[in-house]
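tool_log.txt
---
The assistant was asked to compare two proteins side by side. It first ran the structure predictor on the initial sequence, then on the second. Raw inputs and outputs are pasted verbatim so the downstream comparison step can read them without reformatting.
(1)
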Amino acid sequence: MDTARWMSNLHGDLRLDQIVMPGSHDAGVYGVGEMTAKGSALSWAKCQYSNFGGQAEAGSRFFDLRVFVQKIEEKKTILGKLPARAELRAGHFMSEGSSKKEPTGGAFGGSLVNILKDSCGFVEAHPTEFLILRYSHIKNPDLVVQAIKFFITNMGPRRDLIYINGNGGNLAALPIKSLRKKVIMVFDEKAFPAHITPGEGIHRFKKHPASGVAKLPSGLCTCGEFSASAIFGKMSMSAVRKQAEGSLAAHKSHGNTVPHLHFIYWQQTAGALTWKNVEQTTTAKGGAHAKLPQFTQQMFGEGLASDGRPPVNIVSHDFVTTETCTEIIGLNPAYSRDTSLQGQRGWTA
């Protein structure tokens, strides 16, 4: 499978809520030389192997992005003093700080500018694909939106790579042909209550069920709950799977009166009392990677809803690889284990 362009096999008339995508948890905290520890927690803070371009090449299409302000202190050099400055960077922290206080106990990852450049570069090189960037856990929404708008304004003709829709609309109900070759940015409405402007590429994100979800004016809505799988330092895959199964049952009860995506948290986070190396735990025998085929087989057995919706739309995980993404992509009928489904009308390009 060509994971860099796997969406090319999906018919453009499919709605967003009719496809399954691999997702990247804490996508901005990757180990390619851009990480900076805040304290002594670098070993557990890393959640991905490569930058957004590398994760997209592996097959991921939905990115969990948390942006923080890193203060760069004044430094003395042989040429004089370098002034203090601040930089917006992704991060993974125990304490996420506030608008006036830096986060602690974790690490900063890639810069916001490089993340946007990598994302736009990928969809430009792969026009059948799109990427969704979800901004959450943000303590400085004004700065983040200001930086993103500045980036978009200075893109020139490449501004078309950003999904902008002044008319709004529910993204989950859109055909994927309208999203191809786009970077779609959605912002948690709790962190960005006054910033949602679809005409500038700032789209709403909200959880289902939530107040007012039946009147979702525009943007993207997902259901699914995170499992605190390591409350006492034990990263339990049985707890993760139990939560995923409960999430599936809840999603079925929602129906599709308001189109939304079902989001599965297939990840083993660190606990409140013991912080462990996420990479070692995720890739260990019996960890999230090893248990993924068993879970996707279970989801495959669920089949499709009457209107073609799969049981899950996004499987978010740490340390995405071509192997893990291939497993998740296989839940799309175009890549189905059941070859009789591959020729169904509307499923292949």
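(2)
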Amino acid sequence: MDYFDFVILIYSFLLFFSKKIFKNREKILFGLIAVILLTQVIIVGLKWQYFIIYLLIFIRIFIRIFDFSFSKKYLNFLSYLIFISLGILSVVLIYIFPVPNFEIGEEKVYSVGYEEHHLKFENRKNPTEFVEISNLSNNTQRELLLDIYYPSKEGVQFNQLVRNKEGNWGKYIIDYLNRTWNLKLPTYIFSHLKLSKFEAQKNLQVAPDQKFPILIYSHGWAGEKIFASDQLIHLAANGYIVISIDHTGLAMFTDLPSGIIFNTGSSENSSDIFGVMLEMVKDIEDTVTYFKNSNNDSTTIQRIVRDNSEFDSISLLGHSTGGGAAVLYCAANFCENLILQDPFLIPFLNAGENILINSRTHFIYSEDWFNGYEDSENITEIEVFKSLIEKNNENVYGFYLRDAKHYDFVAFGAISPLTKYTFLKGKINYGDSIEVNNYFNRTVLKGESPKESFSSYLVKIK
């Protein structure tokens, strides 16, 4: 809960009992809460969780204007009980559906600048691998959206970077869950996510007189470039130019200027998962080439990336299917470091392809994946990892995150405490998972080895 939540809830409670507490000063209380609500909508935005509070305030004003009261004491008692119950329900809704704050964390060297950038490749069509799993059309140009975070020395505050966009990413999360698992969740319950606050700011100057290594983030199946923003902001604040790619068609949604492109289902909808990974690699390669070859007539963010990046020092962070794409990219291109969060590598085996590890590579699994789905008759991801250890001891390091599931590597835990009780997350608290992920990423990219002593949740695979 933020400052406005506490103030509005307190004033609303006082308003319910204003006749007894304030007597003839109710008008002052009505005026105060009206100003606070208006200020909250202007600064933060409209939250659906407040609709019950709006209703209760309207009823209280109606009662005050018309001096309405029940003649029977038990009816008065019942009305107060309903008011209190609805007030408590509002508190619960605001608590379990908070507006997420994506903050840098304690370890930081820089503030963080941000820009979203749209790429359109005239010489590349959307491949069949993406068309068959999305609402993309055949023979259309390949378009990508990127989130770019970069180090800055300017002051920064929390900002709502997506509030004014037409696409409501909370709605598209619910749409995907309903479509994929045949659920019937109301789409409005995540509508407040467009108010999410990021400790990053647009139009900042890049930190001067220095070039920074590049970190590219590749999301998983039906992931989204915003889903790991908490980790990516932290890395930018520690001296990296971070490029997060929406793999259009694979992403849960991509809010292109021409309209929303969304993923239509699970990996079972795809006839060639390994082919999807190959096309994700082309997204990464095309993005790097685009920035490397940009000219002086380019946009500000193009010039920032071009002029302030060490293109010979690129590292990749990949989650799930994005981990598979990261392995492929680093097998064909030099990578300084490779971080794989629950990488999905079994499609390599299904396609009869070798898994080549040429870079210093750190695997970090959720405990769920580390345990290997012991009831499965098929090969598990941890068995794939063990085979890589046997082949390549010098470059491969393995860890797992205790009490974690597959989506503890994305920011779903920031969306609601309820995620702890779903298939999305393990028992680990969001604060603990982001602390370990930030430490792990930061340490690996420095060329150092993570220490188990940092947290009881971080376990080295022996």
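---
observation on (2): The mean pLDDT is 89. The chain has 16 helices and 14 strands.
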